[in-house]
């Protein structure tokens, strides 16, 4: 427990670390993705996705609250045994590794298309990995502080999305439920992927200073993410026609593209530059989860070997450059994997822990009787 006290994070850092992990993945693509399935009713799908993410987040908090001083690995081995518990952590580590791979490849693709088309991807990754190493090397406390900094540093981005709304048409949102509930419910699977990041409550909870406020923290984090997604999605829905929005890969960037000032053109470049910070708050926690879990599994504190993963990403980008079709396929795989890992597992494990605890208590009572 004492080793965790030295790395405690505040409630605000806890909230913004989870929120930052969520918004870094879908703010550029979500409006078009939900519009393809649910049309301009996609904003309702986002609300439903937020509710599902919040429910699972509360399940995670409830699980961790049973043993506040335990890490996720210690919790798994406590209830599943050493062998199965460690195997489960390996699965989660691979899930996080795949998540960071998808996020990294998509982000580098966006940077090259919009800002640095003539720069090699491995050079961009090298710069990102240097900063990433400096942050994850200092642990959860610095990750929380960094998430706090990025949140306030990028608060001006939503204002940019308001400027084009002078040419908006709110009638595009009408009628509500134009195709019924089935398209809306079908689009929920897209929004659940957009809210991924909440599962890292497993990582941040043991370091939270005021653990009694953890449930409130995950609710606020998911609510913040919901507000961001609703703001972006509704802005795109009222600016682009219902048919037009489905034609864009990154409608958020297309929305800010017409903005010009006498001293500045191509505002979308500025937006992408700030987006790099948002991307980092999404990728760094996943990467830290991988390195920290690997160190725990090998029972070696402050082990430098897991950080070899960072230069390995540079090597991968040097030899491999997937097409956008491949990236879309990876994102789809990530979504399917997350349904079982991030959404189903915490709920099932919570029921298992409840049943196991009840069985053990009953066994003790029988012996006492």
Unreliable segments of 5+ consecutive residues? none
Q: How many H/I helices?
A: 15
Main beta sheet:
none
Order of helices and strands: HHHHHHHHHHHHHHH
Integer average pLDDT? 88
Describe, in plain words, how this protein is organized in 3D.
- It is found in: Membrane.
- The chain is mostly helical and 369 residues long.
- The chain contains 15 helices and no strands.
- The model has no long low-confidence stretch (mean pLDDT 88).
SSE layout:
Blueprint lengths: L1 H4 L5 H16 L3 H9 L3 H24 L6 H43 L6 H16 L3 H14 L3 H6 L18 H14 L6 H4 L9 H26 L11 H6 L10 H31 L11 H11 L4 H45 L1
Helix pairs in contact: 2-7, 2-11, 2-13, 3-4, 3-9, 3-11, 4-9, 4-11, 4-15, 5-13, 5-15, 6-13, 6-14, 7-13, 9-15
Describe the structure concisely:
Helices cover 73% and strands 0% of the residues.
Output the keywords.
Endospore germination permease; mainly alpha; membrane; 15 helices; single chain; Spore_GerAB; 369 residues; transmembrane
């Amino acid at each position: 427990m004492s080793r965790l006290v030295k790395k405690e994070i505040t409630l605000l850092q806890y909230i913004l670390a989870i929120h930052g992990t969520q918004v870094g993945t879908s703010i550029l693509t979500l409006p078009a993705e939900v519009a393809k399935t649910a049309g301009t009713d996609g904003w309702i799908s986002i609300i439903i996705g937020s509710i599902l993410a919040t429910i699972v987040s509360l399940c995670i908090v409830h699980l961790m609250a049973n043993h506040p001083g335990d890490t996720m690995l210690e919790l798994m081995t406590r209830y599943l045994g050493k062998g199965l518990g460690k195997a489960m952590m390996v699965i989660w580590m691979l899930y996080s590794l795949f998540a960071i791979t998808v996020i990294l490849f998509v982000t580098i693709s966006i940077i090259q298309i919009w800002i640095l088309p003539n720069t090699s991807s491995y050079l961009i990754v090298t710069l990102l990995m240097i900063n990433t190493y400096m942050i994850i090397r200092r642990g959860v406390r610095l990750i929380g502080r960094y998430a706090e900094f990025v949140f306030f540093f990028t608060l001006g981005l939503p204002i940019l999305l308001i400027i084009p709304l002078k040419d908006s048409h709110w009638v595009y949102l009408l009628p509500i439920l134009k195709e019924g509930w089935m398209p809306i419910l079908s689009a929920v699977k897209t929004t659940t992927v957009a809210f991924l990041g909440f599962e890292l409550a497993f990582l941040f909870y043991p370091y939270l200073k005021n653990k009694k406020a953890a449930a409130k923290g995950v609710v606020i984090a998911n609510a913040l993410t919901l507000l961001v997604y609703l703001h972006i999605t509704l802005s795109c829905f009222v600016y682009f026609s219902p048919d037009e929005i489905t034609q864009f890969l990154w409608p958020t960037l297309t929305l800010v593209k017409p903005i010009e000032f006498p001293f500045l053109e191509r505002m979308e470049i500025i937006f992408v530059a700030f987006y790099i910070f948002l991307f980092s708050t999404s990728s760094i926690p996943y990467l830290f989860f991988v390195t920290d879990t690997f160190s725990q599994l090998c029972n070696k504190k402050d082990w430098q070997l897991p950080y070899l993963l960072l230069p390995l990403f540079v090597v991968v980008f040097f030899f491999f450059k997937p097409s956008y079709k491949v990236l879309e396929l990876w994102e789809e795989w990530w979504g399917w994997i997350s349904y079982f890992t991030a959404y189903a597992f915490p709920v099932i494990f919570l029921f298992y822990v409840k049943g196991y605890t009840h069985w053990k208590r009953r066994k003790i009572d029988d012996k006492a009787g």
